[in-house]
From TrEMBL:
An annotated Gene Ontology molecular function: DNA-binding transcription factor activity
Domain of life assignment: Bacteria
HTH lysR-type domain segment(s): 1-58
PANTHER family reported for this sequence: HCA OPERON TRANSCRIPTIONAL ACTIVATOR HCAR, TRANSCRIPTIONAL DUAL REGULATOR HCAR-RELATED
Family: Belongs to the LysR transcriptional regulatory family.
Database matches in InterPro entries: LysR_HTH_N, LysR_subst-bd, WH-like_DNA-bd_sf, WH_DNA-bd_sf
Protein's name according to its UniProt entry: Hth-type transcriptional regulator alsr (Als operon regulatoryprotein)
Keyword Cell inner membrane: no
Length: 296
């Protein structure tokens, strides 16, 4: 059975309009009619009732649509999953990252620089939360990842290459009076709405600072998000103040300010690259060198 004919059938079952389906699928109307006729001959019954004024599904057509639609969705998902696996397999380098503002600024520069050295290279980027980065690296599903140091520091099989050092900061919408401060003390957040990352998205020190804030600011309101980028979206919408390391944000944004957070015992926080030991691959070594030049 022709998969394209089934996809066309499901589209027509939803539009009940031959002209609209032809437009949706970039076909001519006679081509749509021919495909439906061919499918009806193959299944052995009419799928649509057609008059000059309207098109409707027959009972058999309705049953076929109800059963075929989820199968097509599963098929499409399977093809995409297979394509991702193939792209990862043939990639010169497979890179895992968390899609922070800083990475979105620096990665295009890094890939461009690396491609100058390896014009035929194929770089595959994959987005994960921090807790998955290490596992994908250990499973050799990624050649290199870009984590916070505390995400991998206890693993003897992983080499960490520092790139930049930051500290925890408040990402404050410009409409908030705290946006005028040069630093923010933890006590000044007591009555604010604070935006945290969900626990499964947090590297260890991010999780620890969130717990510290909850204890220090019991009357604050709390929102939780699934990503650094969503944190920034909530801040831009004026919904609260996000807490994250400076390396995850950007200092030149027009609608929020990145202001260092003061709290007892604060210390620098390092972001970098993680690779499996030993680092023998010359292409990987050159990629690391490119990253050290771009990120510094």
């Amino acid at each position: 059975m022709n998969m394209d004919h089934l996809k066309l059938f499901t589209n027509l079952a939803e539009t009940l309009n031959f002209s609209q389906t032809a437009k949706n699928l970039h076909l001519t109307q006679p081509a749509v009619t021919q495909a439906i006729n061919s499918l009806e001959q193959e299944v052995g019954f009419k799928l649509f009732k057609r008059t000059k004024r309207q098109v409707s599904l027959t009972k058999g057509g309705h049953v076929l649509y109800t059963n075929v639609q989820p199968l097509l969705i599963k098929f499409t998902t399977a093809v995409e999953t297979a394509r991702v696996a193939q792209e990862r397999d043939v990639a010169t380098l497979s890179i895992g990252y968390t899609e922070t503002y800083y990475e979105l600024q620096q990665f295009p520069k890094l890939i461009k620089e690396f491609n100058k050295l390896h014009p035929a290279s194929h770089v595959y980027l994959e987005n994960f939360d921090h807790n998955l980065l290490r596992q994908h690296l250990l499973n050799q599903e990624c050649d290199v990842t870009f984590p916070m140091q505390d995400s991998i520091q206890d693993d003897q099989n992983i080499a960490f290459i520092p790139l930049i050092t930051g500290r925890f900061a408040c990402i404050v919408p410009t409409s908030n009076p705290l946006a005028n401060h040069t630093t923010i003390d933890i006590t000044e957040l007591a009555d604010q709405t604070l935006i945290f990352l969900n626990a499964n998205q947090c590297p260890p020190r991010q999780f620890a600072i969130q717990q510290l804030l909850q204890k220090a600011c019991p009357n604050a309101n709390y929102l939780y998000s699934d990503s650094i980028m969503l944190d920034h979206t909530l801040v831009k919408g004026g919904l609260g103040i996000a807490i994250m390391v400076t390396a995850a944000s950007r200092a030149d944004a027009p609608d929020f300010r990145v202001i260092p957070l003061d709290y007892p015992g604060w210390r620098p926080y390092t972001y970098g690259m993680a690779v499996l030991k030993p680092i023998d691959d010359p292409v990987l070594k050159q990629f690391i060198a490119c990253a050290q030049r771009i990120f510094h």
